[in-house]
Amino acid sequence: MQSTVLTTVAATGFSVAFFHAAIPTHWLPFVLVARARNWGNTKTLAVTALAGLGHVALTSLLGLAIAWFGFQIEEKVEWFSRLAGGLLLAIAAFYFWRQWSGRGILHHHPPGSHHNADEHCGHGHERSHWDDELKDSHLVSRKSGDGAAIGGLFIMLTLSPCEGFLPVYLSGVQFGWRGFIVLSAILAVATLAGMTLFTWLALVGFDRFRLQTFERYEAALLGTLFAILGVLILVIEH
User: Fold this and answer.
1) Could you give the C-alpha distances from 194 to 14, 86, 163, 181, in angstroms and in order?
2) Torsion (CA) 146, 147, 150, 154 in degrees, nearest 10
3) Portion of the chain with pLDDT greater than 70, in percent
4) What is the pLDDT of residues 39-82, one digit of tens each?
């Protein structure tokens, strides 16, 4: 039974991390900056992977805190699995509310940019918001060197952890440190694979319009994944 639950949590975690990495905020800025600065594909993918490592590192640190506090609670609460399942359903409801209220996009903003948001956060058009936000950013300005651009991209992703993966850490508390290590490895593999894959596809001319649909409905999709995971944990526990 424990193996079944861990497999379910791991599969959900991979889906959340890979899907999150497919959102244009995790690869489109690297493509646009690379084109503005005439970077080669190898350098662009290397910068993407570097920023991805920072993104994964901070998310894992936050996951470590969640796991540690979860271990303390689990020792005192026998029905922790039911508590975790209920919290996942509550988190799913929160994401559904975000989508319904027009806050479905969980994007990051580049350092020094000025995002002009309308009532729909400026995303009612087909063109990505990054095309506008990067215009006034030092990331694409030739007045600043490549080091400043790389540092800016790294900071942007590192200081914006994958909040969608944190509930997955919560659901893995019942498996102890083994669960934390497994989920952290899944986070790293799925995130880096997704970021580098979609960056490469964009560099070679892959049409990015369809992926912007995921960007608009990110909150709803994450809510669906957490709702499924929460229900499964409650059913299996029962």
Assistant:
1) 10, 29, 16, 20
2) -170
3) 76
4) 999 999 999 999 999 999 999 999 999 999 888 887 777 777 77
Pick left, alpha or beta for residue 175 (phi over 0 → left; psi -120 to 50 → alpha; otherwise beta).
alpha
| 3-state DSSP helix/strand/coil % of the chain, to nearest 5 | 75, 0, 25
Q: What is the mean pLDDT of residues 96-122?
A: 58
Length of the chain equals: 238
Q: Within 10 A of 126 (CB to CB), how many other CB atoms are there?
A: 8
Contacts of 37 (CB under 8 A, 6+ apart): 140, 142, 146, 149
Cβ-contact 104, 98 below 8 angstroms: yes
Q: Distance from first CA to last CA of the chain, Å, rounded? A: 11
Q: What CA–CA distance (Å, rounded) separates 2 from 233?
A: 10
pLDDT (tens digit, 9 = 90+) per residue, 140-151? Answer: 666 667 888 899
Contacts of 77 (CB under 8 A, 6+ apart): 83
pTM above 0.70, yes or no: yes
Give the residue from 216, 73, 91, 77 showing the smallest Cα distance to 164: 91
